[in-house]
Amino acid sequence: MTSPKKFTLTSTALRARAQAQLKGDATGTWIDATQALRVLFDLAANVDTAADALALLHELQVYQVELDLQTEELTQSRQDLESMLATQRQLYDASPSAHLVVDAQGRLIDLNVTAAQDLGVDSAGRNGLVGQRMDACLTAESARQLQSRVLALKQRSPSPSFLLNLKTQKGTPHQVCASLRQNPAATGYVLAWVSWPVI
Fold this sequence. Notes:
By secondary structure, the chain is of the alpha+beta class. The chain folds into two domains: 11-88, no CATH class; 95-195, 2-Layer Sandwich (Beta-Lactamase), CATH 3.30.450. The protein is built from five helices and five strands; from the N terminus they run αααββααβββ. Strands 2-1-5-4-3 form a five-stranded antiparallel beta sheet. A hairpin with a 5-residue loop joins strand 1 and strand 2 (108-111). It starts with 10 loop residues before the first helix and ends with a strand. The model is unreliable at 1-9 (pLDDT under 50).
């Protein structure tokens, strides 16, 4: 009489068995993690499935440690990026020259504190300028000048510096020396200027 064959489940079969036991009801709802671990420990206590169950348990523990390490790295990376972004924003706002981003239709997307001040708005009120057309901040002649520079850039012609007259909230035009470039990060343009001394 031959003795019954002793067998061990393969890792795939063990996973299938564990998954079958972890199904909660006919709707396919999964039971919680505590019950899942109980099933795994029950499989580890069975002579026929112990080796594979322990190997799977070790694999899960290693995977959990890997996830914890990845979470730590991602958290640290996020903190580093947020810190760098805050530093760059401070530098952007503290720049002595005005920096603005305008879209292809000439609407303001972003501007630094210096640009807002040149347009007669304090730093707290600069968000009110976002979405406005740049033309509204310029004299009619300067608006045409800016449009011609945008057109030149579209035709890939270099754009030298040029003068613009700003219309401030106080109504006094303010002359600046400006330059315009394609926005490297998105569509639209980067506009920068420095105040031009009136002689």
